[in-house]
Structure formats: C-alpha cells, structure tokens
Amino acid sequence: MLGEIESFLEGDADWSYRIQVYDGQNWIEEINDEYSDNEDDHTQDVSHTFNMFSSSAEITIKVWDRDFWTEEDLADVSGYVGGGADNDITDRRGAIYHGTYNLITNQIEPIDTIITEGAYATTSGTYAPDNSQNSNEENDAKVWFTVSDTYELPDPDLAVTGSLSGSAKMGTTQFHLGYFTVYNIGVDPYGFSEPLLDWEIATTPSWGTNWRFDPESDNDLPPGQPTTVNVYVDVPNQQQTYTGDIKIWNAENHADYATVPITLTAPMDQVVGSLHVLRHLLHRLFFF
Asked: Model's pTM, two decimal places?
C-alpha cells in the first residue's frame, strides 16, 4: 500500500478486489471480498479462470478497503488520471486499472501504464500519466498480477492436388509439364487466428535437369488462398517413359508433406525412324 486508506483508529486495510474480463461476448466478473484482513501490505497469489470467445481479453482491476464503522473506501490502482475515494466505492475510471491481453501473442497490451517487476506486471495510482503527488488523498495502492492462457496457435496443414504428364522430344529444354496446386487446410477450432503455411519443394526425380517451379516456395500461405505452381524441366536425351514424384513439404514441419506424380514420355523422332526404314529397304533391294 502507498497511501493511508484507513483512518488512525481503523487499523490496517481490509482489502477486497474485483476482476472483470470481457470474454468476447459479455463482461464477466469475479469478486474476492475477503482477500485480507487488517493488513496494509498483503501478499497472496489467487487464480481466476475465464473462458474466452475472443483472442483479445479486456481486463479491469478494482480494489477497495472494507470498513466496519464507516463506508468502504475505493483505492486508486490505475495510472489513469484521477484517484480513489473515501466512503464511496462507485466505479471511477481514474481508480480502476484497464488493459487487454492478447491470446495470440501472450502479451498484456496496456491501456493504463504497467511496470514489470520480475514475473509480475504491476499497476498503481502513482504511475503515469496520473503521477500522483498525494497518495494519501487519492488512496493510491499497487497491485501485482499475471495473465496467462491455455490457447495454442493452430498448426498449418499442407495439401496438394494435381498431377503432371506430357510428351516431348528428347532434349527439349524447359518443357512445361503442367501445374499443381498447394493448399493450407489448417483450421483453428476456436476461430481466433489463421494458421499460416510456409512450403517449399523438397525433392524432384533424378531424371531430367534444370527443374524449375513457379513459384518454388511460399511463406505465410493462409487457408482458402491456394497457390498454383507451374513446372518446367529439360527433357533427357534418351527415348523412354519417365515416371516419378515431386515432394512438397511444410518448411517448418517436414512430416507434413505431399507428392505429385509425374509421367513424361520422350518418344523417338518419327522422321529419323522413317529414314532408317527407307535406308534398310533400299539396301535389301540392291542385293536382290
């Protein structure tokens, strides 16, 4: 306690407090009306749990002193300009701490000034911009508190559709095999945030050279915004039907991957083949 909230004959303070949280739908409050008895500086950790329907929680903290012979006194635990009051615990903006807590960043986003002391955030009627010069008059007090949550950010989930196939002359450079599509199908069951996917090409078949992908990777792909990837390759100089897979994975979780099947046919040049047959026939006629 910073200011003398009790009169000379009343002993030390008998603290009570109220915590309010806006859960995204309604203001919910919990009151501890027996936090301390006849103790100005009281240290006791008490936990309060609130269910959230939003990723941002607005929080207020109100503190007052219970009096037996007179009306209760409002303490000032906010740096907002204003102060507490004697014999009146009506809500006053200048006495009640206001802040927000972000479940995505796990950070307190102060509306009123807070100062970190060890593992605790603190709020007080002496903090800026109030900068109270008369703590007794404004009933200045100080509160240590922490805020935490059990929310976990959702994971992205990679999915790929499509296949690649084509037929091209042996030795063709940068043949367009086609395209496939990369999706992020990750879902936040609470709807608080969107999981963002970083993906990249992991492996390509051993045949062919100068594999080219447009694009070859992407960062922060949100759900519902698929990426189309065009694929190009230099065709080998050998007649053959080539098969294989392209592997695409989540850059931050390689266990999350997908493959795209490929079939590429490199047929013999038909003109050359015909000439070879003609030459063979002429050779046979010459000997007959």
From this structure: 0.78
